[in-house]
Every structure is written in C-alpha cells, then in structure tokens.
Specification:
The complex is a heterodimer. By secondary structure, chain A is an alpha/beta fold. Chain A folds into 3 domains: about 190 residues, no CATH class; about 250 residues, Methylmalonyl-CoA mutase (TIM Barrel); about 150 residues, Cobalamin-binding domain (Rossmann fold, 3-Layer(aba) Sandwich). In chain A, the strands form 3 sheets. In chain A, strands 1-10-9-8-7 form a 5-stranded parallel sheet. The longest helix of chain A is centred in the middle third of the chain and has 23 residues. Chain A is globular. In chain B, α7 links the parallel β6 and β7. By secondary structure, chain B is α/β, with parallel strands linked by helices. The radius of gyration of chain B is 20 Å and the shape is globular. Chain B is built from 12 helices and 8 strands. Chain B has 3 domains: about 55 residues, no CATH class; about 200 residues, Rossmann fold (3-Layer(aba) Sandwich); about 70 residues, no CATH class. Helices cover about 50% and strands about 15% of the residues of chain B. Classes of the chains: A alpha/beta, B alpha/beta. Chains A and B meet through α20, α21, β12 and α22 of A and α2, β3 and β4 of B. β12 of chain A pairs parallel with β3 of chain B.
Chain lengths: ~675, ~325
Amino acid sequence: MSDVKKKAPPWLMRTYSGHSSARQSNDLYRTNLAKGQTGLSIAFDLPTQTGYDADHPLARGEVGKVGVPIASVEDMVALLEAIPLGEMNTSMTINATAAWLLALYVAVADRQGVERKALRGTTQNDILKEYLSRGTYIFPPAPSMRLTTDMVAWTSREIPEFNPTNVCSYHLQEAGATPVQEIAYAAASGLAVLDATKAAGQVAPGDFAEVVGRISFFVNAGIRFVEECCKMRAFTRLWDELMETRYGVQDPKLRRFRYGVQVNSLGLTEAQPENNVQRIVIEMLAVVLSKDARARAVQLPAWNEALGLPRPWDQQWALRIQQVIAHETDLLEYGDIFNGSPVIAAKTDALLQGARVELERVEQMGGMIAAVESGYVKRELVRSHMERLRAIERGDITIVGVNRFQETAESPLTGRAESAFLKVDHLAEREQIERLRAFRARRISDDVAAALRDLTDAARSTENIMPASIRCAHAGVTTGEWGDVLRKIFGEYRAPTGIDISTSVPGVKDREQALVERVRKTGQDLGRPLKMLVGKPGLDGHSNGAEQIAVKARDAGFEVVYDGIRLTPQQIATAALEEGVHVVGLSVLSGSHMDLVREIMDEMRARGLKATPVVVGGIIPAEDVSALRTMGVAAVYTPKDADLNRIIGELVDVVRAAQGLSSFGLLA
Amino acid sequence: MIPEAPAYWPDPAALADAVALRDRGAIAAALNLLDDRRQEARVRASVLMNRLAARPSSGAHVIGITGPPGSGKSSLSSALIGVWREAGRTVGVLAVDPSSPRTGGALLGDRIRMLRPDDDAVFIRSLASRGELGGLSPEAGPMSLVMLAAFDVVVVETVGIGQSEVDVAELADTTCCVVQPASGDAVQFLKSGIMEVPDLFVVSKADLGVLAERTARELKGAIPRKPEGEWAANVTLVSATTGTGVAELARGFDAHRAWLDAGGQLGDRRRRHQARWILKRLREEFGVHGIERLGGGDGLIKELLRERVPPLTRHEELRKRILSLYGSPEGERT
C-alpha cells in the first residue's frame, strides 16, 4: 500500500440529520462521527427554520419533525455537547433565521473556549431559492438580502474559514429546473449575493476577492448521471468565467466553484424502495468521478426516505456507500478521467451555452431578485416540472417500479412496514415546550430585554445584525423572540406561487378531454363550476405537489383557490367557508399530517362544513393512511400516486359522492 | 333541462336575515346560491334578493379596484383592509380572476396577498371571470349586493386595463384604477381613452420614488378638467409595503361617497347599475333583437329606472316576457 499517499483527499462525508430534541440529535451525531462521518449536517425543524418558538400556534405538530428544535443557546449547547467545534466542519441547513443560528453556534464556541477564527462550516443562507422552492422564507427580499450581506461581511472578518452562504441549485431541481435552468438560476443567485454585498459597502474593495472565494454551492445530483456530471463541469467553467469578468478576481483558487451535494431525495421512490440504493450510488458517481469538478462535501439520503424517517442503521448504510467509493475503489488515485472525451466536452458546452442565454435573460430583467419577485423564475420552474410529470405520465421517462416493472416479490426489508423507518417521538413537542418554558423562567429578563432592544436598534439601522444577535444568544433570547423582533421591523412576505401559467398544450389527449368533460358535466349538475381549495397547512414549505395539483385541476376545468404555503388550520377552514368550495385538498410533507388534518377537519366542522370532502396528499405511511380515512378523509395520496389525471378524476368522484351524484368510475 | 342533483336548499328569507346579521355561513351560502344556475336556485335567489332589497339601505360603500396584473391591487386591498378595520369598519371582498377560455378552469390566488388576522369582520370570496371580456362574471353584480347587506365596505377587485374599468364602474359606487410606475401601464391607460371612468387613480409602489412620482404627474396631466361642483378624479401615491398613502386613499373613497350622497346621486347610480345589469344579461341571452322586441335598450333602461323592483326578479319577468313574445314555452335555459 505504498501509493496510498498519492491519493487525493476524500470529500467531507456528512449525513443530513436531526430530530426530536437537541439531546437525541447529539446522540445521533456522536454515533455517526464514531462511524467515520467527517462533518456534521444539521437539519432544523420547521419552527426553528421559520423563527417560531415551539409553543407558537403555527408550530403545532411540527416540533422536532423534519429536524431538531433549537429555541435557545441552551438547546445549541446540548446539540453540540462533546463535539469540539474547533475541529468540526458543520453544515447548517438554515436560511431565513441563518443569522440567528450562526449567532447561537458562535455563542456555543465562545462557551467552549474555541477561538472564533477556528470555526469552519456552512450556513445555507440562500433565501432566493426559498421563495422558489423550499418555502422557509420569512421577510421580503430586500431585508432578507440585507441579513445575507451582513453575514457575508461579518464572517469574512470574524470567521474567515466559514462559508456564509451556500447557493442552492438543489431545490431548484426539486422544483422542476432542467440542468440549464439549474446552472443559470444558481449562478444568478450567487451574483445577486455578491452584487448586494458589494453595494452594501461593508467589505473593503481589497478584501472582495476573498469574499468571492467563500461563496459555495449546494447542488442536486439526479439519475441522468452523464448529464449531471457535465452539469458540474459546466457550472465550474461558468463560475470561473463570471468571477473573472464581473469582479476581476485574479486568483483562480478564489474563482473555484466549490460545492457540496445531496443526491436527489425527491427522486427516491416509495415503490420497491430497495432500488433507491443503486439510484443513490449512481447519482453520487456523477459528482465524484470528475476530479476537476468534484464535490467538496457529500451527503447521501437513506434508501427509505420516501417511507419515513431513516433509522440509525439506514443512515449508516448511506455513509458506508461513500466510504466504499472513497476508500475501497481506486477513484482518488487518478486525475480527471473525463478530460479529452468529446462526448463529455460537447454536452458540457451545450449546457454552458444554454445557461449563458438564460442567465442573460435574468440579467435583462434586472437580476435574480427582480426575476423572482416578478414571478418569472417560479413560472418557468412550474412549467418545467409540469413537462416532466407529463413525460412520466406518457411513459417517456421510465421510473423502475413506478411506471414500469411494477411487479415485485414481497420485500424482506419492508415486510413489517411499520418498523422499516423511525417513529418520531410523540412526546418530543410537549417536552420541548416544557424545556422552553423552564428556560424562559430561568433566564435574567433584564438581560433579555436589553439584548432585544439592541437587536431592534441594529435592525432599524444599517448596523451589522450579527453582533447584536450574538448578544441575544448569550442573554438567553429565544428563536421566536429573535424572529418576532425582525418580523415587526421587516414585515412578512408572500412569494409568487407561479401557478398563473398557461399549460395549454396543442392536441389535448383523449384522456384529458374526458376529464375536462367530467368536470364540466359535474359543474352543470351542481349548478356552478367545480371549485376546489388547495391548502398547505403548517410550516412545511415544499409546495411543488400542491402547485402541480392546482395547475392540473385548473387545466381540467376546476376553479382553484390556492393561497400558498404556511396557513393555519383556522385560515384554511375559513377559506373553505368563504370560497364556497366543493372539495378541499391538503398537502403536507413534513410528517405532521395527523395533527394538522385533524385540526382542520375540526375547524371545518365548527364552521358547518361537515359535508365538504377533504383529500390529503403527502409522504404518509400506510398506517396513517387508514387512520386518516377513519377520521373522515375522502382520499389519501402518497408519492407513488404519480398519475395526476387519475387523481383529478377521483376528486371529481369524491365531489359527486358528497353531493349524492353517481360516480363516473376510473378514468379510462 | 339541467338535472337537479339532490341538494339541501336553504330557505332564502331566513338566509337574507342571517346575511344582514353578518352570519358568515349564511353569507357563504347566499353567494353559492347566486352562483347556482339551476332553476330552483334562481327562484330562491330572487326571493333572497327581494328580501335584502326591502331592507333600509345602509351607509355601506361598494368600491371597485381594477388595474393590470401585477400592479399591486391585492396588496393594496390588504393594506386598505387594515385601515378600515382599525376604524372599526367591516369589509367584504370579491376578487375576480380570469378563467381559461379553453376549459373554463381558473386559478384564484388573490387571498395570498391579503394577509389578515383571523377576523370575523372580513370576508373574501374569489370569483372566476368565466369568459366575460370585461373581467367580471355575471354573478359579480348580485354578489356585491349580498355583501353590501352585510359589510360596511365592499371591494370588488378585477384584473385588466381598459374594458375592466368600464365594467367594474357598472357595479361600484366608486371606481379606482391602480397603475404601476414605469410599467407602460399609464401610457396604455391614456391610450385606452377612458380617463373619464375612474373616480380615483392610484399609483402603486410609491416606494420606487422618482419613477412613481413621474407616473403620477403623467396621469394628473391627462385627467380631464371638470366644472365646479362635479367630482374631479385625483391621483394618490400609495405603497402597500410602507403603508404610505393608504389612509389618504381611504379618505379619498369616503370623500367620493360623501359627494355622491350630498348630490343625491348614490341611489341613482345604484339603480342605473342594476338596470344596466338586467339589460346586459338579457342582451347576452336574447341578443340585440330580443331587446328590440321589448322596445329597445334606452326605453328599457328608462322603464327600469322608474320602478324599484329588485334586479333578479325584474330580470326573470323580462325574460319571460321576451320568451312569450317569441312564442316559446317559458322555463329553463338551455
């Protein structure tokens, strides 16, 4: 093994994780690190991501669900206990409240006695894609960008090894972006951050190149792995070129496209989930094979993510995949194995060319912020996503086990379905609220009040938000209090939904025409056009499913009321009443479906809407499906229901049944 | 013949009384009934409207807000709702969005911009335009009357520029047109030749500063001069983001309402709107020829303005009169 030394160093290996409580997540992190994981990737729950405390009404049912709840410095201390921050490289998937979570992280480092300069890691902090896809934004674009530029300026002075923003093309792909759109919009988002930082004037001109060097990216790797590999090469070339021409950065190292990867979680299937393992391996190859465009950090999802929360063993399997590729194979012994390949070069050029054209279009609109605010980018993404779904419906895109090769033997892995994933701790929410209230009672209220006053002053002025936030962290301010102060000053934002697109395609297929006819006929039977409310309750911002249903129902002839994300059960029930809808469709992907649906149905009953049928879509385990049906939900859809025409056809029959009309039956 | 699905039919008189008490379930049910084209629903809707019309008229105000897509109408409505609620006034909103001409489907997304507290004094109903060119579905007129019976202020919000001002002006006491700075909207508007129609102009996104001020100047320059005593439209710069100008605009609406009242014009205006609504519905169903059989549009309007029969009932009577003139059996629409 004499040539071991020649190997390139492997990428950082992480697993995106966190759940229930700081203490339980800390156990998980330490177990994962002991198994050879080389960095941390913290998943926060939705209340933490959107700046609410666990006892806020909007947080109900969401605490500890999709990540760890962090309410205060005390939680952060527990989360990072016995993990030496000076040696760790920590990625935090946090955006609207990134400044706050970074402040808590720094406060913990202060308490551990670690020098700030030694801190390494990443805050995701890419707010633009939150408006487009992930949905955990709070404030309007202008104050949000101000928080971002404050963080960029502050980290470059105080913790120069830290990546203050991780521009995400990952979620753009989830929202439907083609590789060209992914490159163009991610690059445009990066430019928006850098332009804003430059304009804010907090960074000395001589230091700007260093700031450019700290911008990193977070990319999605999909199953078309040759194209994905070329995408990474095209990204690398485009960023290098832009940094040189636009900002005059001379040092090629600072122009380097540095990126981390999570392979495509939403592409994982619920049907025959064992096949996800080979999907994950292949998707990973796309981002590690090419040395010149290799990922700096990789996190792999677990094979059973489409079913529920992965168990420690599932996460271990994901980590072992990375370790086999890095340590068993000879990959790291070679230079770039694609240089000189005409196929790779041609594909890379084509993507680069397309991306330049789209980037130019965005620039013409006044840059990424303007293009997002106008609804342009969202519309383009919804359109691409719709086209992809149509291709799946037509069978032009094969998904093994979903639209082809569906027959399967019984799987020993999922035989007892209820034990094939981790159950969320049902006491987590109550315990977090108890901890939070005890903490509030314990802290020194004068310190808290003074720190919040400082924060208010900083937010109102042009003072950098970080020092005041760190003072808040030390004083015992909570996540909700920090969020409330800024909400009051900056206001809250509702992003364009992007569903005001025309998807009319030439030559509507017979099946769609039949559906349009069913909707029209039912509207006639009921005296007015069919009307549907599409609702997204809770804090979960993954709105793609809701948007696709809304667009599809509109195209079938429904009048669709869609109010966007983050609605309370009361707001949804009120909308159902005021709008006089025939059916309510709810989308929940955060795992909080049981609590939220129950509350909405209670609220609807209280408003006399007992007879209005409710259908639910989301990542919902089989046993919850039957529980929801027992609760009175008319139909439940999970990711394996990919045929939108069928779903809308069933919605028509759900309405007909509720109104005492005979049903049409399955759409031919 | 439209088949009747088995349904629970509300008692229209009781519904009317509950609407006037601002019972939210009743308001929703009344709006559904007005939207329903089945024969039984039409009969009941007539009774409902007659009962509401028999009530003494309140001090309520119907405000039409129109403007091109993206001009900030819904954000503006949202900001206005805040001002009105602070003054203790109740608000009903009818938000109209375009329908797809191909399938009749529509995406109604106006509520999204109307952030509001869970407040029983605000009620929002979205409505599809259903192929009406002017951006208003035929149901909007009667629906605004139901809301008028329940709320202090009724906002009817429609999309478009040009024809939509004309249409919304045919059901609103006060019509307001929203123009976005530096968008070319103002130019479009000036070219459309209907500067006479809106009672108030709003230039939105006043936070854009100089651009907004320039657009306001352009509009002001184009507003026709009015003789003493007549209403002269003005231009308000508003920012829904910062709240600038919102209270001023609300005062502008009140001033126009007061001006209508002082001159005794409010009742006339509303009666004229209802007469024109009837004429329009008849023209849609029977064409110009059908109207001629009743003696022509002008004569019909005069006749309608003389009497005080509520519009749905009057419309139904006139339909039957035309049908009998044509010699066809009265009854269902096909």
